Fold this protein.
Amino acid sequence: MLGLPIMPDSASTLSGSVDTLFLVLVLLALLFAVPVAGLIIYFAVKYRRGAAVNRSNAPIENFKLEVTWMVIPLILSMGVFGWGARLYFDMFTTPKDGMDIYVLGRQWMWEFKYPTGQRELNVLHVPVGRNVRLTLISEDVIHSFYVPAFRIKHDVLPGRYTTAWFQATKPGTYHLFCAEYCGTEHSGMLGSVIVLEQKDYQAWLDQNRMNTGGVIAENTSPGTQTAVTAPTQTMAQAGAQTFQHLGCYVCHRPDGKGAGPSLVGVYGKPVQLANQQVVLADTNYIRDSIIDPNAQIVADYPPIMPTYAEQISEDDLLKLVEYIKSLGSGTEAPPEMINPTGGMPQPGGSSGNQGSGAQDSGAQGSTNGDSGGSDSSGNGNSGTQGSGGQ
Amino acid sequence: MSATAPALKIREPSYINAAYTAKSWLLTTDHKRIGLLYMVAITFFFFVGGLAATVVRLELLTPQGDLVLPETYNKLFTVHGVIMVFFFLIPSIPTTLGNFLVPIMIGARDMAFPRLNLASWYIFMVGALFAIVALIGGGVDTGWTFYTPYSTGFSNTQVIPMAIGILIAGFSSIFTGLNIIITVHKMRAPGMTWFRLPLFIWSMYATSLIMVLATPVLAMTLVLIAVERTFHVGIFDPALGGDPLLFQHLFWFYSHPAVYIMILPGMAVVSELITCFSRKPIFGYKFIAFSSIAIAVFGFLVWGHHMFVSGQSIYSSLIFSSISFAVAIPSAIKVFNWTATLYKGSISWDTPMLYALGFIGLFTIGGLTGLFLATLPVDVHVTDTYFVVAHFHYIMVGSAVLAYLGGIHFWWPKISGRMYPEWWGKVSAITIFLGFNLTFFPQFIAGYQGMPRRYYAYAPEYQVMNVLSTAGASILAIGYVLPLIYLIWSMREGEVASDNPWGATGLEWQTESPPPTFNFAETPIVTAEPYQYNPDGTFTPQTTLSVRQIKKEVAA
C-alpha cells in the first residue's frame, strides 16, 4: 500500500502516526501471512499425492516449535498493543490549551456552537495548527463524529457529554461522516470540516461577528449545508439569560447563602457530596445536576432542587455549562470570551481566588441582567443577584 | 484399508430409508434426521439472507441511492445481518454436521437427549416463524446490533417480533449446546478417551460451552429491549433515565463470543479435513484441542473491543485491547499446526481439501485484520467502516461458510450415501474463493479510506472499490448456488458411495453409508488414537472391535 494513492487524506497531527502504525501492522501481517500462504502452497504442490518425494519420519508434534510460534506472536502483538495504547492515550487526552466547540448531533444533522456565539449547521470552520476541543452530545440516538482525514471518530451519545479533540495541519475541506447507524437518513448525516489558515479563520470570524443580522433561517433537510448563524451574544451570555429565565439564581447565589451551593469557581474543582463521595465538577456533572439533581447532593445542602429535564433543551444545557464554566475555574484557563457586543468583562481568572471570582461573577451577573433585561424583565431579580455578589 | 471391520457391517435399513412418511421425519428423534431438518431450514435462510445482500450490493454499485428507498436499504442490511447471524451462521455447523456427527464420532447411538434435540429444532422453527412474521410485517431497520436508544425509542419497525424470534431461536441454541456437552461427557464408547476424541468433538464441545453460557445474556438483553420499547421503563434510553452503553456491554457480551460460536465449528471441520487429505496424523493434537478451549474462555473477555469509540473508559479499552491480542494466539496456533500437518503428507486436492486450504487462507486474513482492529488508534479510524465489514465477513462468511461447505462435501457420502460430482465441486470451491476475495478485499481499502458502513449513498471516491465488490459478489453468488444444485442432483443421480470413500479413521466412516438408524449394529470399542493415517494410503481406524465380538470371544 505504501505510495499507492489509496491512502486517504492525512490532515491532523495524529493522522500520520495512525498511518505509520497501520502500515507497520500491514508489514507484520504480511510477515505472517506470506510464509503461511507460501508454505501451504509449497507443501500442497511438493507433497501432492503421487509425487515421488521423501515422506519418511514426518513429525507429528514438536513442543519447542509450538512454544516458539506462541511466544513470538505474543511478544510482537504486545509490542503493537503498547504502541497503540500510547497513541490512544494521546488521542483521548484532551489538551489543556485550545479552542472549545460544542457539537450537537440530531437526526440527521450536525450543529456546531462556538463559545463566541456563532452557530453552524453541518459545516465546521476551524483554524489550522490549533487544538480544537469538541464537547459532543446527541439530542436523540447515538451518532458518531467521524473525520477520516483526521483519523478521529467518537460516538455522540444522548444524555452524556463526550469529548474529542484534533489539530488540523492542512487547510482544505474534509468529509465529516456520521459513523454510527442512526436511522433512515444515516448516510445523509454528512458535513464538512473546513480548515482555514489562521488569518483566513480570523477573517471568517470577524466577518461573522460583524454580521449582527440575527438568526439565519434554519434549513433542516439532511445533508444541506447552511451558512453560519452570526452571534448577538456569547454562549456564556446566553447561558446567563437562561440562568435567569429558569430562576436558577434564586438558590444558587454567588455568596453561597442561597438554598443551593454557589456555582462560582465550581467548574473543574472537586465537590464534596452528602454521601461522602468527592466528584469532579466537569461538564457531565453540571449537566447531571440540572437533569437529575438528587442523584448527587452537595454536602450541607438540602435535596430540594427539582429536575429541569422537561424544561430545558440540550442547546440551553450547553449554554448553561458554558456560563457556569465562565464563572471561573480553579484548574483550567477560562474559555475565550471574545465578546461580540463589547461590554462584557472577563470572568474570574485561573487564580482560583474565591473572593475575586465572586466579585467578577457579581459584576457579570449584573451585566447580563442588563443585557438580557428586555427579555427577562418579568422576573426583575437580576439586580438582587448582582448586589448579592458584591 | 484391509484393517476395516467387516463384522460391523450388518445390512439393515439406513436412517434415510427406515421410513418414508412425513411423520417419520417431523417426529423423528434420530440425530441424523434432525441434522437434515436443520440443514433444510438453514439452507433456506442462507438464500433469504443472500438475496438481501444481493440487493444491497446492487444498490452500492453507484454512489447515489437509486435502486431502493433508504428505508428499504436499511431494512435489507438488517434482514441480511439478522438472518445470516441468528438463523444461519450460529446454527450452521453445530446443528447440522454437529447433530449428525457428534454421536457417531464418539460411538453413541444418539444424542443424550434425543427428544430435547427434536424440541430444539421446533423451537428454532418457531423463532424463525417470528422472524418471518417480522419481515412480512414490514421488516426491521435497526441493524442486527439493535443499538439503543434507536431500537427502543425511535425505530418504527417490527423490532419486537424480531427480538422475540431471536430470543426463541436462542433457546434452541442453548438446548443444542447442552445436548452436545452431555453427550460428549456421558455417551462415549468404550475406549474413547478424551485424547482420542476427534478434534471436531473438541471444537464442538468448546462451541457448546459458549452457547450455553453466553446465549442467556442475549435473551435477557432482548427482553430488556422489549420491556423498554413497550412499557417505557428506562433501561437503555437516557431520556427515560437509562444508559445506552449498558446495552452495548450486554449485547457484545453475547455477540462477541457468538463469533466464536460461528468460527470454532469451522475450525472443527478443517482439523478433520486437513489430516485426512494429507494422509498424516494431525500435527500438535493437544495444542489444537486446548486452543479451542482457550478461544472459548478468552472469547468471553474481549467484548469491549467493539466499544473503543463508544465513550467507555479508556482504561477499559486498554484491557480489552490487550486481551484481544491474546485471543489471537490460540487461533494462530491452529493455523501453524494445520500448515505443519501438510509437511511430508500425501496431499490430494479433492473438493473438501480445496475448501479447507481456502479456509486457512481466508481465516488468516480475517484473523490478522482482527489484530488491526484490536490496535486502539487504528480501530478508532476504521471501526464502523467497511474495514470492519470486510474483517468480519472474512471470518464469518469466508472462513465459516467455506468450512461448512467443505464439511458438507466431506461427509456428503455419509449423509446421503452418494458422491457429489468432483469436477463441479472443485469449480464451486475455486469460484467461491475467488469471488469472495474480490467481494471483500476491496472493502478493506474502502474502509481505510473512510467509507462508513450502513451507508445507502456514499461519496463518489469510494465507487471503484464498490464496483469491484459488487462484481465479486456476482461471482460469489454463482459459487454458492452451484453446490445447492449439484448436491440435490447427486442425492438421486450421484455415484453410490462406499462406507469409507476417503479412507478416513473416524468412527463415522466405520459404519455404513448412510448409517443405520442407531449408527452401529454393535457398540464399537475404540482401539486407536485418531488420525492414524499413513502416506501410502493405509490407515488404522479408531475401532476394529465391537462389544459383541468381545463377549463372543469371552464366551468361547
